[in-house]
């Protein structure tokens, strides 16, 4: 288990920022974020916006939304170790 | 996240001008990160034309391409102006056979290679597979374009050819299969314990060159690298003017050369040259020679003015 540090730059704060960024870009999305190590996170996103897109296209939507958290040498997010993109079973009622 | 117009234009031009373009760290002969190296290894296996762009020497592109593609990591592969994916996706597409079409390569026919196992190797492979293989895991043999062999456990992919040999089931991907015919796998004792040895008759071998042929090669004036692998003291004592003493700096430089560069190794009597030549073969060089008899033979047969010691 990685140690979770609360406070500025801590894993919990970054998790919240990731969650917020994905929800802003993909309204109604279901987002699960977990820490996988210092600067490393795992994401599971369920959104109707993924329908009809390739796997790359789906991931591009998420990566585009969180790019500001991954940019530059001191970015709070170093890597997304695992990114799952799921389409809700009934796309009209996510 | 913004991307300035000039960088955007630069990237657009790059991907329009190069049908297959890999944005990577380093270049194909010296990748500077494991993920870039993995993708190069895959692309090289197809023998298709591709270009690379080193983001380490293009800082604007390094950050810009991430925004341009909405993709946070390097390497990134573009084909025909379209983003294909990063390392994971390329690896996956390689496994499923989805890379042939974008790279414009005909899939090789699924020919089953003939693979021999010694009795000991068959036993040990069977045991290894039983111990480390979970459900859906199969023993795989892959052979890189530079004939490096790897044995691993992995799920079966649609591009695999299944080989049954000496009671062992081996999966070989189609690109490797074309390089695997006639391979013998045996069990050998090494310093680190027992290990598998893969003898591949398709792999290039060190070629022996006589001092006479070396003389002709020098006189012909064709480009090649004549490499002296003796100690600096020996080099001081006696040497060929055309030969370069291999020190750390030259060694690093040689690693960046195209893999079809002709390399000719020279030592005192021959054995050190063979060792060095084999090392370069294993790095993927294909046109590798060793001078039989070394400098001693040169002095005896060609030029007595080179001192013997």
Tell me what the structure shows.
The complex is a heterodimer of chains A (94) and B (309). Chain A has a single domain (11-86), classed as GMP Synthetase, Chain A, domain 3 (2-Layer Sandwich), CATH 3.30.300. A three-stranded mixed sheet of chain A has the order 1-2-3, with helices on one face. Chain A is built from two helices and three strands. Chain A is α+β, with helices and mostly antiparallel strands and 94 residues long. In chain A, strand 2 (40-46), helix 2 and strand 3 (79-86) form a beta-alpha-beta unit. In chain B, the strands form five sheets. In chain B, strands 14-18-17-15-16 form a five-stranded parallel sheet. Chain B contains twelve helices and 18 strands. Chain B has helices at residues 5-17, 34-46, 59-69, 87-96, 100-103, 119-132, 174-180, 211-220, 232-237, 248-255, 271-282, 294-301; strands at residues 20-24, 26-27, 30-31, 51-54, 76-79, 82-85, 115-117, 137-143, 149-155, 160-165, 168-173, 183-190, 193-199, 207-209, 225-228, 244-245, 263-266, 288-291. By secondary structure, chain B is α/β, with parallel strands linked by helices. Chain B folds into three domains: 5-103, Glutaredoxin, CATH 3.40.30; 115-199, Hypothetical Protein Aq_1857, Chain: A (Sandwich); 207-301, Oxidized Rhodanese, domain 1 (3-Layer(aba) Sandwich), CATH 3.40.250.10. At the A-B interface, helix 2 of A face helix 3 and strand 6 of B.
């Amino acid at each position: 288990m990685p140690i979770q540090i609360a406070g500025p730059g801590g894993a919990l704060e970054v998790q919240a920022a990731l969650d917020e960024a994905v929800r802003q870009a993909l309204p109604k999305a279901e987002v699960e974020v977990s820490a996988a190590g210092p600067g490393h996170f795992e994401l599971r996103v369920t959104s109707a916006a993924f329908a009809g897109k390739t796997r790359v296209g789906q991931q591009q939507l998420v990566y585009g939304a969180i790019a500001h958290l991954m940019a530059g040498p001191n970015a709070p997010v170093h890597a997304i170790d695992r990114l799952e993109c799921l389409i809700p079973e009934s796309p009209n009622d996510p | 996240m913004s991307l300035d117009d000039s960088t955007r234009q630069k990237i657009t031009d790059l991907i329009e001008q190069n049908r297959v373009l890999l944005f990577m760290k380093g270049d194909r002969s010296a990748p500077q990160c494991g993920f870039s190296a993995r993708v190069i290894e895959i692309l090289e296996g197809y023998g298709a034309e591709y270009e690379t762009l080193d983001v380490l020497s293009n800082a604007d592109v390094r950050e810009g391409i991430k925004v341009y593609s909405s993709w946070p990591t390097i390497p990134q592969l573009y084909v025909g102006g379209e983003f294909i994916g990063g390392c994971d996706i390329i690896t996956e597409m390689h496994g499923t056979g989805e890379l042939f079409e974008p790279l414009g390569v005909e899939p090789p026919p699924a020919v089953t290679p003939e693979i021999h196992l010694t009795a000991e190797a068959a036993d040990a492979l069977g045991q290894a597979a039983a111990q480390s293989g979970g459900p859906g895991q199969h023993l795989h043999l892959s052979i890189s374009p530079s004939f490096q062999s790897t044995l691993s456990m992995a799920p079966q992919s649609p591009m695999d050819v299944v080989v049954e040999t000496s009671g062992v089931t081996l999966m070989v991907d189609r690109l490797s299969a074309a390089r695997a015919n006639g391979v013998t796998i045996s069990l050998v004792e090494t310093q680190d314990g027992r290990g598998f040895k893969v003898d591949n008759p398709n792999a290039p071998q060190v070629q022996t060159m006589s001092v006479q042929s070396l003389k002709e090669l020098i006189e012909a004036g064709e480009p090649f690298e004549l490499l002296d692998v003796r100690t600096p003291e020996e080099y001081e004592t006696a040497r060929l003017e055309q030969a370069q003493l291999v020190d750390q700096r030259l060694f690093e430089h040689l690693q960046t050369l195209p893999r079809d560069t002709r390399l000719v190794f020279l030592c005192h009597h021959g054995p050190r040259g063979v060792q060095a030549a084999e090392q370069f073969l294993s790095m993927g060089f294909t046109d590798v020679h060793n001078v039989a008899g070394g400098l001693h033979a040169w002095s005896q047969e060609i030029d007595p003015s080179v001192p013997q010691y």
